[in-house]
Amino acid sequence: MTNLRLFNSLTRQVEDFRPVHDGEARVYTCGPTVYNYPHIGNMRAYVFADILGRTLSWKGYKLTHVINITDVGHLTDDADSGEDKMEKMAAEKAQSIWDIARHYTEAYWADVKALNIRQPAEWSVATDYIAEMIDFAKSIAGRHCYELESGLYFDVSTVEDYGRLARAVTEDGEGRIGAVNGKRNPQDFAIWRKTPAGETRQMEWDSPWGKGAPGWHLECSVMSGKLLGFPFDIHTGGIDHREIHHPNEIAQNQAFCGCGGLGEVANSGARVWMHNNFLVERSGKMSKSSGEFLRLQLLIDKGYHPLAYRMMCLQAHYRSELEFSWDGLEAALVRLKRMVMQAERLRDVETGTPDHPKFTALLEKFDAAIGDDLGTPIALTALEEALAVKKVDAGIKRSVVERMDSVLGLGLLELKREDLRIRPKSATTTEAEIEDALARRKAARAEKDFATSDALRDELAAMGVEVMDGDPLGWEWKLG
Ligand SMILES: Nc1ncnc2c1ncn2[C@@H]1O[C@H](COP(=O)(O)OP(=O)(O)OP(=O)(O)O)[C@@H](O)[C@H]1O
Ligand SMILES: [Zn+2]
């Protein structure tokens, strides 16, 4: 096997992965803020983290993956101003924050499951770690923080080289930082926000700095350090986190682990920081507030299998922008279907060993691609080539497909071609009705009764069903 090489946003280079603990990989992924449904762009971040985790397993590392659930502290503007997203949604809906958090956490988990994203070792929920957050803040407050009326602020000038992660791409971050009277530096951020006098919040806790709530950046520093130990191996998130959230986490980690002398990597809490690029719409970055709200459920309602979206993600490299379109989704679905049709023949055979000379080069190609900063587009072609290998024992082929799919997670050996039919939720015709009409049509054709056969075809068309005789992909029919 080749070395695993990963792009580290800290050094802006592809580097050999060298674990902190021999044979182990510890990964922290910034999780969703559960104030609303995730859009499919958000889910791209978790498909990426899942591919990373599966690749680490493929390479033989014992994986500990943590994904957090942010249920407090994330403001409407990452740059330290605005309202708490959770409080805002709860006020809008006149519901308890806890109910909101539960509802959207479950919705997120449903998407995770539908996309074959593996369960991490732990889903750490921010509000379960408030005491640890207060302890962390206490331990750095003396040297690195100052108190204002609105909260406890982190002074970014007290750590070396603040913001080095963000500077890779932007010099203009400061323009977005909200002004708070009394801040020492514009980039200083609240690690504890006090509840303003006379207000009560649904979520607030006592602290040495008064009643209030932790800052979002503090949460991730505390949960990652607590569950994985500093320094751990890899920290992931979407590319927007490279600008503010992760530089701020790094500053806190530096303060907590001790500044000076350790060098930038050890001091940053994690050795490698990785970021997926955005899923975009033609009009720009996908977001919950603009345009059609593209939830995974919307794709399903329009008749697409959710794994077609996973396929769409894998067709692009995680560091490239990916533009969403319905045509692109359909193309990904067709590609998935072709693979499922080839894998169908392997479903009922017993798994053999993958050591067959016909597959050596393909397994090497696959390993080199996935090991080269998670090159899923090429890894997919290796899997397709393996599926197309002729005159080989089916058990051996099956074991190769299983192995490759353990990384790509398309579920090729479980999916059936019927699962991939496009069937919009709005369709009023049931599949049983369609199958029944098709069976009658088949019988009519067998008896050369073309009048009946044509009439049934028209009947089906009236039901919105397009009959696809002789379709090489075997769709047979399609609901429009
Ligand atoms: N369009 C996108 N494409 C890929 N990843 C994204 C996109 N938008 C957000 N992310 C990532 O999704 C993850 C979850 O983000 P979070 O739940 O905080 O959503 P959010 O920032 O409120 O979403 P948004 O502002 O896009 O509506 C983060 O890692 C974030 O970087
Ligand atoms: Zn985070």
What does this protein structure show overall?
Residues 432-471 form the Cysteinyl-tRNA ligase anticodon binding domain. Keywords: Aminoacyl-tRNA synthetase, ATP-binding, Coiled coil, Cytoplasm, Ligase, Metal-binding, Nucleotide-binding, Protein biosynthesis, Zinc. It is a single chain. By secondary structure, this protein is α/β, with parallel strands linked by helices. It has 3 domains: 5-280, Rossmann fold (3-Layer(aba) Sandwich), CATH 3.40.50.620; 302-419; 426-479, no CATH class. It has 16 helices and 18 strands. It has helices spanning 40-58, 85-93, 97-114, 130-144, 164-167, 216-228, 245-257, 263-266, 296-301, 306-314, 326-344, 357-371, 376-388, 394-408, 431-446, 450-462; strands spanning 5-8, 13-16, 24-29, 62-69, 75-77, 81-84, 122-125, 145-148, 151-154, 189-194, 212-214, 232-238, 270-276, 279-281, 284-285, 322-323, 465-468, 476-479. The protein has a 5-stranded parallel sheet with strand order 7-4-3-12-13, sandwiched between helices. A 4-stranded antiparallel sheet has the order 8-9-10-11. Helix 1 crosses helix 10 (306-314), helix 10 (306-314) crosses helix 11 and helix 12 packs antiparallel against helix 13 (376-388). Residues 168-175 and 260-264 have low confidence and may be disordered. Adenosine-5'-triphosphate binds next to helix 1 and strand 12.
